[in-house]
Model the fold of this input.
Amino acid sequence: TQAISFTNNAEYKYPALFEDGSRGNMFAQVKDDWGKLGKFNSSIETMCFIMLAKHCGMKTPVHHTETDGTKNGTTYGDVIESLANETIAVEISASGMPKLGATHLTLSDMQTAVFCLSVSADKLLTSSHANYSKYIALVKQVLDYCLGENKFNRSFLVGYNPAGKVTSTYVLHGPAQGFWEGPKLPWLANYPGSDELGDFTNVPPRHICYGGLVSPSYEGEFNPTSYDPARVEVGPTYQKGFEGSLARMVEKLGASAGTVLPNFPSPEPTDGKEYYVRVKELKSTSNSVQLSALIVNHSAWPAVLKENMSFRYYFTKEAGTTVTVSKQDNTQYALSGVVISTPKLVSGNTYYVEASFPNIKIYPGGRKENPDSQLDGTKYPRYPHYEKEIVFTLTSSGSWDNSNDWSHKGVGQDATSTGYSRIENIPVFDSNIYLAGKYPSEVTSTESPVESDGMVVYPNPTDDVLSIRIENNYTGTYNIKFYDIAGLLVQTSSFSKNTSFINNDINIDQLTKGIYTLEIKNGETSVFRKILKK
Done:
């Protein structure tokens, strides 16, 4: 009913026209209707005609509100055959790509049109039609072009890299890029983007968007690291037709279509930049230092929300002095509820202060926008979801020396435009569970990165030996199971524990490279860890 209502509408010229008034060549884009059928509706009118031809019959007359006498008596079959025949009458560009549609569609944009042709040829006109082989040849030509059979020797399918072909990994796709705030887009110059990873031309996406289709122009122009959305934007708008045509080819070719690649895609290792602290020195005197510290949740394997993050800032107290700490609340991104501890002794003159963010949601979700901001980051403070600030001052009763402070190393180095440096020597926690960051050598084993369940699995990633350290009061047999990314059990092990502490090594050199889930079971209690075998 919706299809009939849509096609029987004077607003949409019969049977299919481009907005410029030219004939609807190549099942291509017709007039967009941003309200009725969704934001993206390439070839939606043609799809309606195909569905009605199948449902009502190819010989059923088309009823339309237009009164042009030449259209009276036209059947759905007439419409389908007319469009299909015009399809194979297209030009071929210098790059070898068909020039489809009045505006010469890009490779991505033509995918739905090609799928419409494939369905019409197979399901409506059938293989008995005189031009059937030409219809299918064009479908195959476009698919082959996508997969590397072109003068550029380039696969335009992201992550698909047949031997000898160049492939692309740069895409305009937020989850693939892994940006917590978004790229610096040329058409939104006043949108500041991310300080660290917002420049698409310098930093590649964090994930490979396997199967995303990027696109040259019909003349073959393509810059794989540009931010031209017509080239590197991927999404369902372009994918639906391409995947449908691929499915059709696999169905038709059967066993000769090939086989599924084993272990594809290979698991991704993290880039080590998920949780950390960025620091800027605001003021330094002979007996004090004032720091702005931003705790960051830039998780992407997967992205997760944290509500009780904290970090430890380690420093060395000068002999014979005392150190106090104070927190400032009059900062740009000041948060109520942020806590800074008093200095805590580690050993000798090594201390730390712990900054906590209790019941504060921190997640890689961009910034909280002011509704009146109009994306102008210069007119108002923009409150990030992915990082939270604390400003604190350490004051000594005597002299202060930053040079011997473990967590001050790197402050001011490799700083972003805002003056913040990412500091590795600051351990980060979530509900007291260690996440990332380096400890000073003075830290004892009881303060090492053991999680709240009393276990630590290290090193991670690892090559051939995995160590499991358990510091809790649970004794007895621990059964260890390794599951691959498909959930299959691939290795088992066990050991006994009869003291409060044990360290056990497991040889995993026989496992192939990839990500595994490790189950550590004691009685009825199981804990799980993700590990990466390099």
In short: Confidence is low (pLDDT under 50) at residues 12-42, 187-198, 369-381.
